[in-house]
Amino acid sequence: MPKKKTFVLTKKLQHVAFIMDGNGRWANLRGLPRHLGHREAMNRIMEIFETCREFNIYCMSFYAFSTENWNRPQDEIDHLMDYLEEWFAKEIDYLDSVGARLQISGDIARLRDSTRNACIAAYERTKNNNAIVVNVCLNYGGRDDIVRACRAIAQEAKEGKVDIDAIDEPYFGEHLYTHGLPDVDLMIRTSGEQRLSNYLLWQNAYAEFVFTPVKWPDFKRKAFIDCLEEFQNRNRRYGGLKNE
After folding, report:
1. How many domains does the chain have?
2. Whether the predicted pLDDT of 163 surpasses 80
3. Which residues are known catalytic residues?
4. Could you tell me the pTM of the whole model?
5. For site-directed labelling of 89, which of 10, 95, 182, 242 has its Cα 20 to 30 A away?
């Protein structure tokens, strides 16, 4: 039997972002309540985390809950928050032990107390780690992120803390939730949908997009590597003519 070819990532990839779509449809196809699709979805995160470590990908972002997701039924929201808290409790020891930093992007003030406290505790415990970053986008919206940054910069200008001519892209980026993180190189959305859904609009400016039909609960190492292979075959020119 011929030896299975091993994928080697040779193209620079620092930050991969995921829209974890298809959880409810995955559950419906199996005759299960939608919330069990979200529970299964949480089981994929650590497999993806380990694959990122394997390929030396520094940062991964997960779209866990958007500003628009408050329109969902309250019981589904409650289950989502339950599963997030369970995930933090189950994985924080290991993540800390391998030098992972948990970063939260989004307005967590609106979250229920237990979920907000779990986020804060995970961040505080791992804030000095820098081997790899897990950025959880929670109550996050790309437009809200940009408007929030504009308000902060406007206040600084009003108070005379910054000259308007000094406001450039790096300065603006430091006021986003993702400050300190590299821009997204690869954005993956599962379940076949082909839109950004208000996700990391600024940070995805020059990302390569891969839309896979695989539903997130089935998005395991092999499916992720398929996306990495597609990324590796892309010609990233950043508006120029020369390859990356």
Report:
1. 1
2. yes
3. 21, 69
4. 0.93
5. 182
The CATH code of the domain that includes 98 is 3.40.1180.10
CA distance 23 to 46: 16
Domain that holds residue 213: 15-141+181-230
- Let me know: does 180 contact 135? Beta carbons within 8 Å: no
- The strand pair at 15-19 and 59-66 is best described as parallel
Can you tell me the mean pLDDT for 37-56?
A: 95
Give the integer Cα–Cα distance in Å for 153 and 164: 9
Task: Give the whole-angstrom CA distance, residue 133 versus residue 16.
Answer: 11
Residue 133: closest CA among 117, 122, 142, 141:
122
Residue 134 resides in a domain: yes
Residue 17: both structure tokens together: 């972002």
The verdict on residue 239 lying in a domain is no
User: Nearest 5°: phi and psi at 39?
Assistant: -65, -45
Q: Taking a C-beta distance cutoff of 8 angstroms, is the pair 177, 105 a contact?
A: yes
- Per-position b or e across 197-223, b if 16+ CB within 10 A of its CB: ebbbebbbeebbbbbbebbbbbbeeeb
Edge-to-edge order in the sheet of strand 15-19: 100-105, 132-140, 59-66, 15-19, 186-189, 208-211
Does the pLDDT value for residue 214 go beyond 70? yes
